[in-house]
Amino acid sequence: MDAQGVLPFAVDDPLLTAAEAAEVLGVSRWWFGELVRRGRVGPSARIGGRLRVRRSVLDRYRAEQAGDPQDPYLTYEDIGVYLGVSSWTAGELVRRGLLAGTRIGRRVVVLRSVVDAYVQACTR
Asked: What is the C-alpha separation between 44 and 27, in angstroms, rounded?
């Protein structure tokens, strides 16, 4: 506490373990550790030899990964629904390089604007 009796951090911003943080992000503990080591998620702290991170840091990282709400990321399933094809076909479009995808953890995502540009190119 400071001189006025106020805590230097928000009580509703808990310090999470690596396992809890990985669960929040939907990735494995190992991948969460990699995100921290690569400087993608931070700041973090080692307390008693264990990695800890604040919930607000994870929320900020997820917001960065979500991107622009006007141009959201789409998964293979989302692309399939959007184009009216199967998710396998959507994956083939990415694997063949017709749609530029980005890997986030285990998932590959594509910006909706990229899918729209592909549709425009196919309909000319």
From this structure: 17
